[in-house]
Amino acid sequence: MRVSRHWRNKLFRYRLVGWRCVSCGAFHYSKPLVCKRCGSREFREVELPKTGKLLAYTMVKIAPKDFKDKAPYLVGLVELDDGTKILGQLTDFTKEELKEGARVEAVLRKIREDGENGIIEYGFKFRPEIHHPP
Amino acid sequence: MVKLNGVAIQGYGGYVPRYRIKAEEIGRLWGREKQELPIEEKAIAGLDEDSVTMAVEAARIAIRRAGIDPKRIGAIHVGSESKPYAVKPTGTIVAEAIGAGQNILAADLEFACKAGTEAIQLITGLVESGRIEYGLAIGADTAQGRPGDALEYTAASGAAALLIGRLTDDAVASIEAWNSYVTDTPDFWRREGENYPSHAARFTGQPAYFKHILGSINELLNGDGYSIKDIDHFVFHQPNVKFPLAVAKALRLEREKVSAGLISGFLGNPYSATSLLGLVKVLDEARPGDLILLASFGSGAGSDAYILRVLDGIVEKRERAPKLKDFIERKIYIDYASYARFRGKLRLR
Description:
The structure holds two protein chains of two kinds. Chain A is mainly β. Helices cover 10% and strands 42% of the residues of chain A. The N and C termini of chain A lie far apart (44 Å). By secondary structure, chain B is α/β, with parallel strands linked by helices. Chain B has two domains: 2-172 and 322-342, 3-Layer(aba) Sandwich (Peroxisomal Thiolase, Chain A, domain 1), CATH 3.40.47; 173-314, Thiolase/Chalcone synthase (Peroxisomal Thiolase, Chain A, domain 1, 3-Layer(aba) Sandwich). Chain B is 31% helix and 24% strand. Chain B has eleven helices and 15 strands. In chain B, strands 1, 2, 5, 6, 7, 8, 9, 12, 13 and 14 form a ten-stranded mixed β-sheet that branches. In chain B, strands 4-3-15 form a three-stranded mixed β-sheet. In chain B, helix 2 packs across helix 3. Chain B starts with a strand and ends in a 7-residue tail after the last helix. The interface between A and B is medium-sized, with 27 and 26 residues.
């Protein structure tokens, strides 16, 4: 079950590729039949920007079963540079860097592992943006 | 010695994870004093990183520098001895994560620490023959040393990627020649199903590292009119700080010709990525016109040596993405307990 779900969503998890409603602009990470916000049936494939800012965050210490081996971990709400808001795990943060408004970038990380012999689910997490001169 | 014609690095990327452990902290457990330790500190992949995620990170940087559509990449070869799957290629995951197409060649390579430089040979062949437009050669490892073993002080994590294509005016560096030198040498190995490698200590230096690196370099230089004094930067595989400096001494090189490519003192030895990360650091600093000699070493054993000529395109392209220095400087120190957890030495189930 989990293998097929991971496979189905991998474009979104690997590269933030999803579907934007042509009439209202709502973003969907898998292609829906009708837009959850306006009911439209027209979508176009989009690749979201990989950078944005952290709006809010929390630390998960008591994790769901599948994530127990990764706890404690941070989850954040990020506003990407095109305005899309997206939830994701945070990684590689120091205490000092962890504040609302911090610039972040999406990187590929291991999200969860189905035991020692199951599939490894890779997907995006947000880390502090590494600045470089333009 | 193989001479190449019209093949160049169009983009390059190095990735080093954020976590560092000091050799002193490892030595604390095993009763080693500071002066006995082979390096200062090493880079460690986080709990959510492996050779796949690091390969992707390095590849994305290389593509950003090259400024090309990933759909034009025709082959991805990843060299690693720490694949997260024993069976399931790393190259396919990298391909999807960077947005490459599906009609491409993706294959993984293994040759201890030289699997990454082998990838360059395969990609240059495909580019030169016109079978592909661009290809990615990647070295990525989360190297493991058995707790308490000498390797534990140096076995590190990192990745480097070269995006190789036809020689153009805006290329980063042309790849002019290569040579490979291999023998069956029992210096270091890991049997199927084993978590940690083993090594026959007496073979590590002279019969393995030095013989192969010097063998490979000598043939490359003898074969094609390059002389040591023409070369501006030398990058060697570096299992520790001493070995590359000993090669420099054997070749009678000035210190400044090797210093830019030295990384093991503060990053450790991320196996397949080591010599390539040394190259990345040199490319971050080199001037157009500089000649670079790169020589990897992989146990078992062999060495690949390359001659590269830095081109004008480097000046603009290297500014397009983070440099190795950006990753080297953003470090978080961890203690042995966190290291044990991050590297799977502490089992939670």
